[in-house]
Amino acid sequence: MQELAAAAGSEEERRQISADVPHRMENLLSKYPSEMLAGLKVNAERGLAERRKLHAEFVDRNTSRWKEGFDLLELQIEISIEAGDSFTRRLRPKATAEGDLVFDLLVRLQAKGILVAKEILTLLKNGYADGAHGRWRSLHEMTVTAMFMLAHGQEAARRYLDHESVDAYRAALQLEKFVSRLNTPGFSEGELAQLKARYDAVLDAYGKDFANAYGWARPFLGKGNPNFLSMEEAVGLDHLRPYYMWASQNVHASAKTIKTSLGLSETVSEALQVGPSNSGMTDPAHSTAISLSQLTITLLRLAPNLDDSVMMKVLLLLTDEIGQAFVRCSENPIA
């Protein structure tokens, strides 16, 4: 546009060119981006293949550096699967017959915890320590919840399950507020009415404070408006709060988040991380081992036999070994 204006022979031509600029820009923006994207797609396969090759080579180097720790953490995950499966098979018939809500919740929490631990291991192996740390935060929450259920029994489990009606209704109202902007159909009047009826029913049963985020836990904590910290304190895991807050930095967009990274913990100069790194695995890995062992042991403590008692000790020993192994691996040179 500037070249056209410079080549104009008169003021009238310059005015005409200026007047035509919006039309020319609109025409350019309506065609050029799609043409550019089509060209990028044509050439993408070669570039993507090269990037995948480079990442596979990185994973090999990363695994080589942290192999001892990765192998032990993977072993712990497999042991937890087998322990949970054996325990569930043994006690499921009795628990089902008795309508044991605590049993069902602990089994589900441990299964979900194993899934999260596998996600964490995948992130670590692929060089994303900060992402793994953020996922550990979720695993810690599951562990605290499981320990709380074990401590407070069937009534806590029932209230926890019934609180889903509060969460569901509030989520539906949130969605309805933005259906047009989200371009989603939302809920029908009948569906909303049904959700509202469930919401009203649990508030009638438990009181208006039940609508709070942790209202289901209120009778067991002696606080008017309990929160997750209250639960951590109740089960004796509040000493992990500093690590929980640290991991939260990888979930929220705080100033700390954009200035620090586990993946940059061994850099000597200013850098911005936009891809994988083979630094910073120790804390998220050991935290995962601790929480997964706590979660699995909580399940086994519900009704342990001799095999379960042995397995609890095995998990505790392995957790310590995992921490020590990752410290040793961190001393290996960066490949």
From TrEMBL:
InterPro entries: DUF5677. It comes from the Bacteria. It comes from Pseudoduganella namucuonensis. This is Uncharacterized protein.
